[in-house]
Design goal:
Layout (H helix, E strand, L loop, with lengths): L11 E12 L5 E12 L3 E5 L6 H8 L7 E11 L5 E3 L5 H10 L1 E5 L12 H12 L5 H14 L16 H13 L5 E5 L7 H18 L2 E5 L3 H7 L2 E6 L2 E7 H6 L4 H8 L2 H4 L5 H4 L11 H10 L1
Parallel strand pairs: 3-8, 3-9, 6-7, 7-8
Antiparallel strand pairs: 1-2, 1-4, 4-5, 9-10
Helix pairs in contact: 3-4
This protein binds adenosine-5'-diphosphate and magnesium ion (MG).
Length: 305
């Protein structure tokens, strides 16, 4: 984080306009309220806020992975491709959406590592992404790409022949990140991707994500309740409270000059941020474990949509 962090909002890759999501029932919850947000090409946008404020609902809404009783009540999400065309995600049908998801926008959720099929090798599961989305690719190229992907996220190529149970949680989550990167997406949405992992592994993976972002130029919406971590890795941060974005600014401005009362309280709630020297920049990783999200449900949804 530094004051001169470049911002890319002049060249947006995703624009979210007046986006609202309700959980409809006897008591209807307005989980996301009139959110307006722009994700710049190649930007890491942090989304912070306490458990239950609507972060995951927003993520699922952007990628159209919501299930009933969730209902998008207002607004829309536009994707602007690097080739120059724009798609309104709310108008895409099932097939188009499925294609879109891994190809243009991919996702990594907290429980993603548990969604690997235990009886299928890592190679076969990675290969599946290419078989489904790049049917013209030769077998040799597929296998080579799968190996490259693993190495990219810091897992040895030889692990291709492993089964998920032979890998640690951190390695399995890396495999999921590799899978999310497989098709060179322009946007990755990461919802608490490292929260279930221990602090050292979390740190390694975050370094990997920021390095790959510089290398490959994808944009990231990085969601976590862990504000110190977001301050470290984000270009800009949006603070969410009770379904609304209450503040949006560069990480540096947000930290040094928070405007909203809630942002101030949130900052104050992390002891590592209030130390005299503000040394969170080097040490501020929290290992709170909150808010388990499972990818299995999402995959089932994708499979049946
Ligand atoms: N399937 C559901 N049915 C009803 N309400 C839900 C459902 N999922 C989430 N909610 C409610 O929506 C709000 C936002 O939840 P969520 O998006 O999971 O927050 P976060 O990810 O920030 O912890 C919460 O009040 C939660 O109770
Ligand atoms: Mg959540």
């Amino acid at each position: 984080m530094n004051p001169s962090t470049p911002r890319h909002i002049a060249d947006p890759v995703v624009t979210i306009e007046d986006f609202s999501i309700d959980y409809v029932g006897q008591v209807t919850t307005h989980a996301v309220k009139n959110v307006k947000l722009t994700l710049g090409r190649g930007e890491i946008l942090g989304l912070a806020g306490e458990s239950g404020c609507g972060k995951s609902t927003l993520a699922y809404g952007i990628t159209r992975l919501l299930k009933p009783p969730a209902l998008i009540s207002t607004g829309h999400v536009d994707f602007h491709s690097r080739e120059g065309w724009t798609a309104d995600l709310s108008t895409l049908s099932g097939d188009e959406l499925r294609q879109f998801r891994w190809d243009k926008i991919s996702m990594v959720f907290q429980g993603a590592m548990n969604s690997l099929n235990p009886v299928i090798s890592i190679r076969a599961q990675l290969e599946d992404v290419f078989t489904a989305h790049r049917p013209g690719m030769s077998r040799e190229e597929r296998v080579r790409k799968c190996g490259d992907l693993l190495e990219r996220v810091g897992v040895e190529r030889s692990r291709l022949s492993s089964f998920p149970h032979e890998l640690s949680g951190g390695m399995r989550q890396r495999v999921m990140i590799a899978m999310a990167m497989a098709l060179d997406p322009q946007v990755m949405i990461m919802d608490e991707p490292t929260t279930a992992l221990d602090v050292v592994v979390q740190r390694e993976i975050l370094d990997e994500i920021t390095r790959l972002r510089s290398e490959l130029g994808f944009a990231v919406i990085f969601i976590t309740h862990d504000l110190p971590l977001l301050l470290e890795i984000s270009d800009r941060i949006a603070v969410m409270k009770a379904g609304e974005i209450v503040e949006l600014n560069s990480a540096y401005e947000l930290y040094t000059n928070p405007q909203n009362e809630y942002t101030k309280r949130l900052l104050a709630s992390f002891p590592s941020l209030t130390g005299e020297r503000g040394d969170f920049i080097r040490t501020g990783v929290s290992d709170d474990r909150l808010n388990e999200t499972t990818q299995t449900e999402i995959d089932q949804e994708v499979a049946t949509s």
